[in-house]
Amino acid sequence: MIKVGIIGATGYAGGELVRILMNHREAQIVWYGSRSYIDKKYSEVYQNMFRIVEDVCRDDDLAKLAEQVDVIFTATPQGFLAGLLTEEILSKAKIVDLSADYRIKDVEVYEKWYGIEHKSPQFIEEAVYGLCEINRGKITEKTRLVANPGCYTTCSILTAYPLVKEGLIDVDTLIVDAKSGTSGAGRGAKVQNLFCEVNENMKAYGVASHRHTPEIEEQLGYAAGRSMTINFTPHLVPMNRGILATEYAALKRKPDGSLPSYEEIKAVYDNYYGEEKFVRVLEQGVCPETKWVEGSNYVDINFVIDERTGRIIMMGALDNLVKGAAGQAVQNMNLLFGLKESEGLELVPCFP
Amino acid sequence: MIKVGIIGATGYAGGELVRILMNHREAQIVWYGSRSYIDKKYSEVYQNMFRIVEDVCRDDDLAKLAEQVDVIFTATPQGFLAGLLTEEILSKAKIVDLSADYRIKDVEVYEKWYGIEHKSPQFIEEAVYGLCEINRGKITEKTRLVANPGCYTTCSILTAYPLVKEGLIDVDTLIVDAKSGTSGAGRGAKVQNLFCEVNENMKAYGVASHRHTPEIEEQLGYAAGRSMTINFTPHLVPMNRGILATEYAALKRKPDGSLPSYEEIKAVYDNYYGEEKFVRVLEQGVCPETKWVEGSNYVDINFVIDERTGRIIMMGALDNLVKGAAGQAVQNMNLLFGLKESEGLELVPCFP
Amino acid sequence: MIKVGIIGATGYAGGELVRILMNHREAQIVWYGSRSYIDKKYSEVYQNMFRIVEDVCRDDDLAKLAEQVDVIFTATPQGFLAGLLTEEILSKAKIVDLSADYRIKDVEVYEKWYGIEHKSPQFIEEAVYGLCEINRGKITEKTRLVANPGCYTTCSILTAYPLVKEGLIDVDTLIVDAKSGTSGAGRGAKVQNLFCEVNENMKAYGVASHRHTPEIEEQLGYAAGRSMTINFTPHLVPMNRGILATEYAALKRKPDGSLPSYEEIKAVYDNYYGEEKFVRVLEQGVCPETKWVEGSNYVDINFVIDERTGRIIMMGALDNLVKGAAGQAVQNMNLLFGLKESEGLELVPCFP
Amino acid sequence: MIKVGIIGATGYAGGELVRILMNHREAQIVWYGSRSYIDKKYSEVYQNMFRIVEDVCRDDDLAKLAEQVDVIFTATPQGFLAGLLTEEILSKAKIVDLSADYRIKDVEVYEKWYGIEHKSPQFIEEAVYGLCEINRGKITEKTRLVANPGCYTTCSILTAYPLVKEGLIDVDTLIVDAKSGTSGAGRGAKVQNLFCEVNENMKAYGVASHRHTPEIEEQLGYAAGRSMTINFTPHLVPMNRGILATEYAALKRKPDGSLPSYEEIKAVYDNYYGEEKFVRVLEQGVCPETKWVEGSNYVDINFVIDERTGRIIMMGALDNLVKGAAGQAVQNMNLLFGLKESEGLELVPCFP
């Protein structure tokens, strides 16, 4: 049985880790870290866990924790893990970091977009970007540090990845217009996240400046084989969970000037994702809906070719707390310990 | 492996049965009955099931179905099962009926409240009212027909049952004010259930005339040892899932004129429900919230004694599609086949 | 032109006062008081007011404000006005207080339920309880201080008032089960009011202890001609606006043992409210819905007699920010200045 | 007093026309046309209008109606008006058509995108496209037929118009990603618009095929001085009202290779909209939110220049039932009769 510690267990992503791990046959949570609720019963913070979790919340002493567990999930603010991580900790426990601290290889890019100094850049190189469907081979029992991808980024990257990798679209034209449920904003008490401010409302935010932008650019850049810049615009939607990414790009024309056919593009997607448990390429004409993946680790993807404009519109949907955070983190944990990759993640989407 | 057939598999309760049974280790669905979608892939009706369910919808031929399965769930309109049920069918397959056809023992009461003739009253006596926590002992491998309780009724009954059974409240004063999410209204295309009609709105309906009233009265009447009438008022709430029942009754005073204490009432609830897997009596001062049971088979219950008025306010919350329908139906199936009662129902509530 | 000052202009009730007064022909806001946003443009706090309100927020100096305006609306926390009010202030400007400070005549009751000391009980006697439909005659150009009723109380009282006043129900059996949209919880940044905590959720709160209880009891007690205690249970609903009160009481039987008829009860309601602009007694069988009064100053009321239990179920719906707060405050202002009572309040409900 | 007839008065747009016209000082509705509810009281269909509208619904006899009124609003399905319109009708009453029948000048384009034959193309030339801020000069007391723009189109066009007209963006790169509340889907009883299907969900629909596409292309094409094709992707959002358009385009670089500055672009917007009552160009850094215009005739617009990609992201928000339908229709009526353009439209947005 893998012993698990969570730092930030009372945030929404932390809570989702707890929910998922309750039904994981090989892992057991032994440390519910929450600086805000030390000594409080976890189930008093999340009453849904009443009579399911009996533990109390503990502080976030990473060094002490590392001695007691096999793996640590850090669902913490940017900069937290970078400020505490040491070689000694990493030598004792594996870490799956749900923050952005080790996602971006270029520390200058990190510091520019996040506006904070990176306190332990020496571990960036070692960290594996934990987008399992793409980097599965790099996440092994030898891996010590996994940078779990962001919610928007997981959705944005997986939706476009096969076409970028195969060179089928002009990456300079890629635009990602993304929409997210409000749990992505976290559980902090802020006026702008109050029910009455979000409900019956829709807005863009972080336009041309959202921190997930360089993460998408870096990862898709690897696929493209060159650096690239995109427009990424997140929007806040009055729903709890779910991200929908609508992505636009110019299709490269064939030598005869024609566009690739639906079948050709579909074959590419199927080639990349046909065997993937958690990526579902939908049937022709069916647009992904966030509700269809709610509570599950699935990403639903589809596309439409617009002959008039020569562009392809790609769409991806996932649950930001599952495949966009906790679910993918558990998927990474499974890889780290050589377990079945889908262990604990056979979650059937809940509708309605 | 128990072979399962579902009639009405494309309604919301039917869909929830499918979701739950996907993770049931001892049961397998072999018949997805849906008169409206015959020959259509089930996953085209509920896209959340894409790549999870490969079957197509079939008609609702009960006799034919009975030959192929061990148990049939009927998630069908009132009168459907009563119109088709025969001794031959019952001799071949067990039935868990999610409609009201066999819930009420007095056929006149049924016909009055439902406004339809009961076509097979000969089976009413045999049917067991499948409120597992109360009638568990009557649901055995010999049982052929289970009347699965209504959503409002499950919540209303379980919330008040211990106090009624112990004679602690004046049952003539019992008032149930219940609030339900909109999935309880079903998937029929009706103007009053459109998003724009329900959203940002709240209303009572079926005031003094809702069909769950006699069902509550009958079951609580058994507990009280005499017939009783109550006020039951359902309300429609702009959320997908969840029922909250707020119940009011005068507490019987002790010989010295005092009211029972919190501890005394709590002890009664704990006595009835302390060992129940799916009933959680919350800690003092914590009001049940529907979100804390969403997606799970739990009923959360608590109460407040009002010294000023001498009344007790009881509150119960459940997910109308799980404990209020499909979850309880599976719980009944487990009892019918001698399985662990909670098999397939270890569902952790999803928050947020 | 009446000069208006608002203290607490950036809360939800304050914002609604601004919205309503923008279309009031006889009043003009000259002071937008908001301690939290001093010197900030009002329209930066509420962007809906961009290019409509050009003023900046000012502090809440009541004495200074009283010299500049004819009437002050205080949309402030409990105890604020009581702590500052002086004879000098009252001699200069009329006050419509949207807090509870002067609603309850018995200062001990106030201090017990609100848990704070009342700092200026000497003004309680003078204050008029501003439930216009009932106390209209007492709100005149001579009145200096109006205690604007609470949102739940306005709804609860008006719904039951005619029957209490006419002695048609047993007031000891009165139970008010009320449901409110989330704007009633105010704009404070609290975890429990975050979108993800409220959305898809329903709960009771303040059970047997909510502060609107004694206010309802006092006002209905005047109608009953004696003191009374009730059960009042508020619930939080995932919608922005609206209160629905469902009220239960035993009807008094006639000498022959029969219950009053629908027509008799309807005649009583019509007698009280038939001429009232803002109270709509609906037609038989139509249940009030909060959406039908949204954005308007209406209260929609109806009732059902349950012959089986001898009880009447009364239902009332209003917009908590309009008739439950700002609208009624403006209605009171109109009375205070001898204007047409509905001036500025001809707001047509917005649907959907 | 202008006499108004409405055909389709019981749809959502029709209902909004009624709401707005109730507070219009120069117009009076004398005909509430609704084929579905003939002889039913209008306020029984929309209970918010109880005691406000006393009329009953009438059939949709256009010829008869034209004799009785000065102006007819047709809030009807595509093809309805085109199938009935005659010179005689137009000679008697002005018509503001909220359907698409006369919006598109090229009848082949109309027939291709709408999939129906146009029955009266002879009136297309005469019809004025009623986007008031752009075509105000063409809507005069001599005008007989106004094609009221679509909801998505109004938002999409106004957001980009100044930059297209001034040649500041490369129109071939224009992409409109639009999000709409559910009232835009109308009041028809369809499964996909049920509360439980829309709530907690988000999806794109009509990808590369939505009928508002050619309407946007035609109107922006006039501004650009040449034909153009765009990508337009609508999305369904779980809210009642509101459209948010996020638009992307490559900014044309100046001769020195630099991009226009924020101030330069802002000056262009201010030049076009600075004097417009109903278009609000927000302050730098403020993203439009649909809630800030809810219930009002405003369009809120802003933009961000992305130096990294050379694109501009434009955002526009409006209430689809007001500026996107009924409000703009009334604005057109005001122009048709020489009234103050904002008469009846001084609606303050409602928040929250």
Explain what the structure shows.
Chain A is α/β, with parallel strands linked by helices. The first copy, chain A, folds into two domains: 2-126, NAD(P)-binding Rossmann-like Domain (Rossmann fold), CATH 3.40.50.720; 152-320, 2-Layer Sandwich (Dihydrodipicolinate Reductase, domain 2), CATH 3.30.360. The first copy, chain A, contains twelve helices and 13 strands. In chain A, strands 8-9-7-10-13-12-11 form a seven-stranded mixed β-sheet. In chain A, strand 12 (299-306) and strand 13 form a beta hairpin. Chain A starts with a strand and ends in a 16-residue tail after the last helix. Chains A and D meet through strand 7, strand 8, strand 9, strand 10 and strand 12 of A and strand 7, strand 8, strand 9, strand 10 and strand 12 of D.
Summarize the structure.
4 copies of one chain form a homotetramer. Chain A has 352 residues and is α/β, with parallel strands linked by helices.
What is the 3D form of chain A? globular
The quaternary structure here is: homotetramer
Low-confidence stretches of chain A: none
- Termini separation of chain A comes to 34 Å
Whole-number average pLDDT of chain A?
98
How are the SSEs placed, and which strands pair?
The structure is a homotetramer of 352-residue chains.
Chain A: E1 2-7, H1 12-22, E2 27-33, H2 42-45, H3 62-68, E3 71-74, H4 80-84, H5 87-92, E4 94-97, H6 107-114, E5 128-129, H7 132-135, E6 145-147, H8 151-165, E7 169-180, H9 195-198, E8 203-204, H10 212-224, E9 231-236, E10 243-251, H11 262-273, E11 279-281, E12 299-306, E13 311-318, H12 322-336
Parallel strand pairs in A: 1-2, 1-3, 3-4, 4-6, 5-6, 7-9, 11-12
Antiparallel strand pairs in A: 7-10, 8-9, 10-13, 12-13
Helix pairs in contact in A: 1-12, 8-10
